[in-house]
Design the sequence.
């Protein structure tokens, strides 16, 4: 199973970097076994307001998420994710937000997380392969 971090969804609608935009669009379209993490969905809606000048409104972001729900599995949060995130914060030096994404990946059988926000130490700590699709 695969998941994307919020930055991938954002870049798909951010024309300021056409290379990243193209790569994000290709990646999203190619993932037929994706998991839409609750936190990522919420962050995407919140971030969409910052891209209103570039054509991404909250309404468009919701429409994007509805389309993804038809293709990907939706992963809702649980208390176990919060408990695991607490452990990851103390052992992996992750922020609470990054730790919750990784913990949600672990709980939902995600083996690959596409993000530009993590380094190789996260893979070593969790066993989840972190792939920066923009390098």
Sequence:
């Amino acid at each position: 199973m695969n998941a994307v971090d919020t930055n991938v969804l954002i870049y798909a609608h951010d024309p300021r970097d056409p290379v990243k935009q193209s790569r994000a669009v290709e990646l999203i379209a190619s993932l037929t076994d994706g998991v839409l993490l609750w936190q990522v969905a919420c962050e995407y809606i919140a971030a969409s307001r910052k891209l209103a000048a570039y054509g991404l409104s909250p309404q468009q972001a919701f429409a994007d998420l509805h389309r993804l729900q038809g293709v990907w599995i939706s992963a809702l949060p649980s208390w176990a994710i919060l408990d695991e995130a607490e452990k990851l914060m103390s052992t992996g030096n992750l922020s609470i937000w990054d730790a919750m994404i990784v913990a949600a990946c672990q709980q939902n059988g995600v083996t690959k997380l596409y993000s530009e926000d993590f380094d190789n130490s996260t893979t070593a700590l969790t066993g989840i392969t972190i792939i920066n699709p923009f390098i």
